[in-house]
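Task: fold both queries, return tokens.
Query 1:
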Amino acid sequence: MTKTGLVAAIARECGLPKREVTRIVDTMFDVIASALRRGDRVAIAGIGTFEVRRRAARNGRNPKTGEAIALKSSRAPAFRPAKRYRDQV
């Protein structure tokens, strides 16, 4: 499902205009992204937790040349689904 499909499904279920649902969905994603940038976790009961995970510095390889390269440590967003959500899927 794409964002457009998600908006259409929510609009149909709630009886709201797509324009308003789009604004709500965009705002929700923006709020989650802002919290992750600050280093906060976002826990949605029954769905799961969004968090930022640290990746340690490590050695990697250039796939084209096979040359060893040093990869810096980084931060990456991650989602951990709730047990109830996993069981439904």
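Query 1 returned. Query 2:
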Amino acid sequence: MRTLLHACATFEIGGPQMRLAQLANHFGGKYRHLIVAMDGKTEAFARLDKTIDAKILPVAVKHGKTLGNLGHFRRLLTEINPDLLVTYNWGSIDWALSNMVAGRPHLHLEDGFGPEEADGQLPRRVWIRRFALRRSTILLPSQTLYKIALQQWRMPEANLLYVPNGIDCDRFTAVPNWAFAKEFAIAQGEPIVGTVAGLRAEKNLRRLIDAFAIVARQRPARLVLIGDGAERAALVQHAAGLGLADRVIFTGNCSTPEKLLPCFDVFALSSDTEQMPLSILEAMAAARPIASTDVGDVANMVAAENRSYVVGRDAQLLADAILGLFGDPARATAIGAANARRAREQFAQQRMFDSFEKLFDGAVVRRR
């Protein structure tokens, strides 16, 4: 059994963590998974099947002590001697630097950037990535990221792999489950705009609430936010300040979003930065029309019929997109059906599984 050491900035619930759970559960007992959460948050571990060989590896991270951390990580890599080191995003870059000495085969997954890089790459981080990853295999789930790695990080093209995210489309249906939705105080009757997101700064859910305030002034509606995170209290307060306390529903985390998505008349994404969000794929598979900010690959992910509702990062533009879909239910239904077809044709999970199995088995991945 091959041992994979996954170094994550966090293992709280989010897109990269859900993809890791999806992969680990699919492959079952084929691999041993050791997971490091740099911030100590491990909520996503509950999404792993209890029958697989996986555990959280406690690692002491000393904030502000980069050299000490590098030495500590290098010693751990030498002691554990994993068959493959898998790092995730900027938050795990110290593991990539440590591995330059430890020399384990290394796969780096880059899913996107935090709010500090929403409008462009920070030069210092570009240089560190260029140095730390120059002999690693880098997997990128979006064409936007692929271009950044090639053109800005100046990575050799032979080191880069484009593997789009995939989902289990069969989990999703267009039929609302109102009995389940009632458990979250979601009731049938008024148009619903909803999203699935970690309540974090880069998701800019304040923008979505502002857009919904514009929508709510023109027609009765509800906003549903599925997910949790550090911004929840501030977002609840913001909604209340706009007089929307009884119109905005915060469900907290939900392990079965596929049961709630069909209740949405419109799925919305308001992020400042994304690349290939799983939530968009899930909404597509559930035959939802989508109103979204134009970030990452979103405009190319959705069906052609939906692209005019992918707009600039502005609350008014997002509100106009939502209202446009609310105002033409027949068109919204047709767009949702087109999204469902595209999800099944282009983003079925088996393609992703096949690619990751080759990588986890050592194909292509380079030894440092």
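Both queries returned. Flag for query 2: The CA atoms of residues 44 and 144 lie 27 Å apart.
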